[in-house]
From TrEMBL:
HAMAP family: Ribosomal_bL33 (MF_00294)
Family matches, as InterPro entries: Ribosomal_bL33, Ribosomal_bL33_sf, Ribosomal_zn-bd
GO BP annotations, alphabetical order: translation
Protein name: Large ribosomal subunit protein bL33
Gene: rpmG
UniProt-recorded Gene Ontology molecular function terms: structural constituent of ribosome
Organism: Candidatus Falkowbacteria bacterium RIFCSPLOWO2_02_FULL_45_15
Family: Belongs to the bacterial ribosomal protein bL33 family.
C-alpha cells in the first residue's frame, strides 16, 4: 500500500489522532467522517480526517 492513500483520523472531542486508515482519493474527494471509539474519551465519537 502506498503512503499516498494513508489518512489520519482525529477525535472531534479530545482532538487526538487515534486512527490511521486509507481511502481512494480519486473517488472520494471530501474528507471522511466516521463514528469510532476513542480510547482517551472512552466512548464513541465522531472522527474526522486530518491533513
Amino acid at each position: 500500500m502506498s503512503q499516498d492513500n494513508m489518512i489520519k483520523m482525529e477525535c472531534t472531542a479530545c482532538k487526538r489522532v487515534t486512527y490511521n486508515s486509507h481511502k481512494n482519493k480519486k473517488t472520494i474527494k471530501q474528507r471522511l467522517e466516521l463514528k469510532k471509539f476513542c480510547r482517551f474519551c472512552k466512548k464513541h465519537t465522531l472522527h474526522k480526517e486530518t491533513k
